[in-house]
Design goal:
single chain; alpha+beta; GROEL, domain 1; GROEL, domain 2; GroEL; 6-stranded mixed β-sheet; 3-stranded mixed β-sheet; 17 strands; 50% helix; disordered N terminus
Length: 500
């Protein structure tokens, strides 16, 4: 049975998405505002990161969930641009409502929107995108564009430099390990060449900085079997049975000592029985047990040392440097190898855990966009200038399209201008004056102009060094178009039978 039909269903979907857009719209741009999100337990998040806001929103409306999924796709592929995607989708839907009021069929609007998106992205890649020479200065400009307006703004140059160093060291953003340590301020952040493990020594001990290290998966604890066997033993038999297991574990420990005659450290993924830890400790070998798989892989990359399954598989050890640091009663082991490794850890410092969380989110965006450019992506000028240029191009092409689809293409062009308009509005400027000025500049051939938030009129984004990956803009346009056309094609909202 149909609950909401026809135009009423479409209007309700558009209204639901407008509510989400209003939530994130004020965070867009260098002068965007923050949101404080509070749950039922009083836990708060302070952020202007669109992806985080959308992820934490309590949204029940199915159309609203579609927009949030669209933003999540944008974040997964391009690391940034989620707010732009949602704002653009909201404006496309608002403008489609005007087209529907003028008699256009939703399917015709969808056809026009898809054609406009195709023309805009083709123009973006062929005319607006540039193959810039990848240099540290250019990569830092990319990072600055991503973090401007966030908490990281307080140390813009330092943060941008750190981002470039981290990505160049690791090769991609996905390989950069990040550790947040409360205390100090943002400028105290640094890149550590090695792995940092949030673990303590099993038995507290002084640790030699320069030492030999072994990486072990297991083999130092009693193994459980799947067999259910009942055995009756007297006291003498039980003592012999227990002694055999102890002797077996100690024999495994002796194999480790053969490879660490002068002492060292063993990092173990699984558990280690206490009497083995004690035996190794007496022979100046430290044990760190129950490490996560990711930590073991990081140590392996740092030291250039394979992870072996059991002590009998050990072929060699590796030299490394290990030292302990305690932060807020939490102990960390800092490990460096003697080889040239791509393993590094970005250590972020901040006054509180709340600010550190926001700092980490900002770093994730900046690391991601730097990684995109380093891995061959083209770039475009930011500040909304690219969207304004695409809007102007679409207006010039709309007249070549026959029929009412031309109206949809013009509406798409108007929607693209919402991004520079919103940036200007959040910066205290008049959005209408900004758009009119941008159209004038584009007509004169100045395709890289965007809102001037330090004064009136517009300013050249190329001069300011505001750059972003072209794939970020392309994906935002395509994602917003796809979710918009999907919603426009819905004419019924029908209650499903609940699962039994």
């Amino acid at each position: 049975m149909s609950d909401i039909e026809g135009e009423s269903a479409l209007r309700q979907n558009i209204d639901a998405i407008r509510t989400i857009v209003r939530t994130v719209k004020s965070t867009l741009g260098p002068l965007g505002r923050d949101k404080m999100m509070v749950d039922a337990g009083g836990n708060a998040i302070v952020t202007n990161d669109g992806a985080t806001i959308l992820r934490e929103l309590d949204v029940a409306h199915p159309a609203g969930k579609m927009v949030i999924e669209c933003a999540q796709t944008q974040e997964a592929l391009c690391y940034d641009g989620t707010t732009s995607t949602v704002v653009l989708a909201g404006e496309l839907l608002s403008n489609s409502e005007n087209l529907l009021n003028r008699g256009l069929h939703p399917n015709l609007v969808c056809k026009g929107y898809n054609e406009a998106a195709s023309m805009a992205t083709e123009y973006l890649l062929n005319e607006l995108s540039i193959n810039a020479i990848v240099s540290d200065e250019m990569l830092e400009a990319i990072a600055k564009t991503a973090i401007t307006g966030k908490t990281l703004d307080a140390a813009l140059d330092d943060v941008a430099s750190l981002c470039v160093q981290a990505v160049k060291k690791a090769g991609s953003a996905d390989k950069v390990r990040v550790l947040c340590l409360p205390g100090g301020n943002l400028r105290d952040s640094y890149l550590f060449s090695g792995a940092i493990i949030n673990k303590t020594l099993t038995i507290e001990n002084e640790i030699d900085k320069d030492q030999h290290i072994i990486l072990l998966n297991g083999g130092l604890e009693n193994q459980k079997t799947d067999e259910n066997v009942t055995v009756q033993l007297d006291m003498q038999g039980y003592t012999q049975f227990k002694s055999s297991h102890t002797d077996d574990m100690l024999s495994q420990a002796k194999i480790i000592l053969q490879h660490l005659p002068e002492g060292g450290t063993v990092f173990v993924r699984d558990g280690v029985v206490d009497h083995v830890c004690t035996y190794l400790h007496k022979n100046n070998v430290n044990v760190v047990r129950r490490l996560p798989e990711s930590a073991m892989r990081a140590l392996s990359a740092t030291l250039g040392l394979p992870i072996v399954q059991s002590p009998s598989d050990i072929e060699c050890s590796a030299r490394g440097q290990v030292h302990k640091e305690k932060h807020y009663d939490v102990e960390y082991l800092f490990t460096q190898g003697m080889i040239d490794s791509d393993q590094s850890t970005l250590v972020l410092r901040g006054a509180t855990t709340t600010t550190l969380d926001e700092i980490e989110r900002g770093f994730d965006d900046a690391l991601g966009v730097v990684s995109l450019i380093m891995n061959g992506d083209k770039c475009v000028y930011g500040g909304g200038s690219t969207y304004a240029a695409m809007a102007s191009y679409l207006r010039s092409r709309a007249a070549t399209v026959e029929g009412r689809a031309q109206m949809a293409i013009e509406a798409f062009a108007d929607s693209l201008e919402i991004l520079p308009a919103t940036i200007a509005e959040n910066g205290g400027q008049d959005p209408l004056d900004c758009i009119l000025s941008l159209r004038h500049q584009i007509q004169n051939g100045n395709l890289h102009h965007g809102p001037n938030l330090d004064g009136e009129d517009t300013i050249d984004m190329e001069v300011l060094g505001v750059i972003e990956p072209s794939s970020l803009v392309r994906q935002a346009v395509l994602s917003a178009t796809e979710v918009t056309t999907s919603i426009l094609k819905i004419d019924d909202m029908i209650a499903m039978r609940g699962a039994n």
